[in-house]
Amino acid sequence: MSAPKTGRKLPRLIVLLIGACAFLFPFYYMVVGSLQPEPSSDPSALLPNPAGLTLGNYTAINDRVPLLSALANSGIFTGGVIAGTVVFGLLAGYALAQMRFKGRGLVFGTVLLVQLVPFQLLMIPLYVMIVRTYGLADTYLGIILPFAVNSTAVFVFRQFFLQLPRELFESARIDGAGELTIMLRIAVPLCKPALLTTVLLTFIGPWNEFLWPFLVTKDPDMQPLAVALANYISNVAGRAANPFGAILAGACVLAGPAVALYLAFQRRFVSTDLGSGVKG
Amino acid sequence: MSSPARGATSPGRLRSLGRNLLGLGFVSPYLAFVAVVFAYPFGFAVWMSFHDYFFTAPNVVVEHPFVGFENYVTVLTDPDVRRSFVNILVFLVINVPLTVFASMVLATALNAKLPMRSFFRAAYYVPYITASVAVVGVWLWLFSSGGLVNQLLGDLAPEPSWLVNETLAMPLIAVFVAWKQLGFFIMLYLAALQNVPKELYESADVDGASTVRKFLSVTVPGVRPATTLVLIVATITGANLFTEPYLLTGGGGPDGSSASPVLLMYQRGIEQGSPDVAAAIGVLLVLFVLVVSLINRKLTERG
């Protein structure tokens, strides 16, 4: 009975395995290359002798790009964006879902419209405003500001809160609870898993963002890791004899936190991705 | 007892006024941000593109005279800018079919009870959540002239090598972006596949349809809404392209063959100090995205 079943699954598995190799190989190659004293492109280097591996490239990149302070900058940038996304997103999303007020439709229309404005159109005027007019170059505020409000998050939070039964809120209001209390004590705890997923998804954006922090930070002490590493790549790649060891070590440090976070919370990423489709 | 209707509505009106203020209070931080970070820069971008704008020291008041379409003329007669828009079309022609085909096939393969299913899902998603800057580092090494890809190809290795080859640089960027984003689209298609009625596959089985036939006649039309979304997202990604031409091909090289409009906005606007010209490129880019999206929609709706 089970033999033909496995037989039918085999072509699927082969397709999936080929796909998985294509996706994971560059990551394997990145880690292996970062541990070789002189990364070699020879096919025989794909399975290096474990005894010959060193962490030398990591100290080499650390000499050129202060990894710890760059990681801290990435962390502050990401943390600031997440904080803004959650605070502004929760307030606006809750009001749009559970409060009645004049102009609510207009605000919701704004939320949808803003998502259509492409960042590349805003890049130049934002640069003029933030760097030239307000002098916020090389400050955390300048890096965070354009990303601190996230209309997609407002929309997503509104959808979460809409699913909660209205009676819950009405009875709390009759008991005299203020709206802020209701939001924080009732609405947020009930939506906790969905909120956590949104925070996790928000993490990836600023952690990986390159263009905006690249425009705003010229001071190496203020640069997030993505910018510092990119500058190292574009300045050194042409000159050094074999710059790849240090580049790959930096790439591992940059990729590590996002990948680790994803693997730790994989179930959450997947369940919401599919949830909308399955229920829809 | 005889309190008139007026007396009853007055507290009601007060309550509704309080409710309105409270609601607006909740949304006002968001609205204030939208005004500062979206609405004002949006208007500023359009205004800038019609004026002679240049950088000055802070708080220095200078005139920025209205110049009509002059910036647009500058942009449209600039061969580098025209090249960059053609490059985006090259990008889309390669990236979109590759993304649609590969993610549809892998999502279909993944859509069953399989051993190691969560491993596959994780494997496909990892490039999507990793910073472009990090994976560009590996691709630089893989596709460098003495890199692994050329070593494996031996005599078949292209000359000049991938990243410095005028005909191959942009296609390689298109493949890179397809590879990096594929995980997202696989998840999208996987969700869309849940909405394809199982009965369609069963009746196809009864009719003795082959796997390929079923894929083409049931799966492909069944996930069309997802395909439309893929087309839109891919167009926007293509229009936003910056990190890859900046790092992977060293600033849109060779000879501007992999330059993107956003890269030119950076070079013209910030490196060369003509933000007005860059703003005009931005406006044209948005119009370009709108036109391509409309064409996409026409094409997918007719099919």
From TrEMBL, chain A:
UniProt-listed InterPro entries: MetI-like (IPR000515), MetI-like_sf (IPR035906)
SUPFAM superfamilies in alphabetical order: MetI-like (SSF161098)
TM region positions: 12-31, 76-97, 106-128, 140-161, 182-204, 244-265
Subcellular location(s) of the protein: Cell membrane
Residue span(s) of domain ABC transmembrane type-1: 71-265
Keyword Transmembrane annotated: yes
UniProt keyword annotations, A-Z: Cell membrane, Membrane, Transmembrane, Transmembrane helix, Transport
PROSITE patterns, A to Z: ABC_TM1 (PS50928)
Lineage top rank: taxon: Bacteria
Membrane topology: Multi-pass membrane protein
Matches recorded under PANTHER family: ABC TRANSPORTER PERMEASE PROTEIN MG189-RELATED (PTHR43744:SF12), ABC TRANSPORTER PERMEASE PROTEIN MG189-RELATED-RELATED (PTHR43744)
Similarity field: Belongs to the binding-protein-dependent transport system permease family.
Protein name: Carbohydrate ABC transporter permease
Species name: Streptomyces meridianus
From TrEMBL, chain B:
Record keywords, A-Z: Cell membrane, Membrane, Transmembrane, Transmembrane helix, Transport
Pfam families tied to this protein: BPD_transp_1
TM spans (from-to): 21-50, 85-110, 122-142, 168-191, 223-242, 277-295
Domain (ABC transmembrane type-1) ranges: 85-296
Compartments, as annotated in UniProt: Cell membrane
Main localization (coarse): membrane
Membrane topology listed for this record: Multi-pass membrane protein
PANTHER family (alphabetical): ABC TRANSPORTER PERMEASE PROTEIN, DIACETYLCHITOBIOSE UPTAKE SYSTEM PERMEASE PROTEIN NGCF
Name of protein: Sugar ABC transporter permease
Source species: Streptomyces meridianus
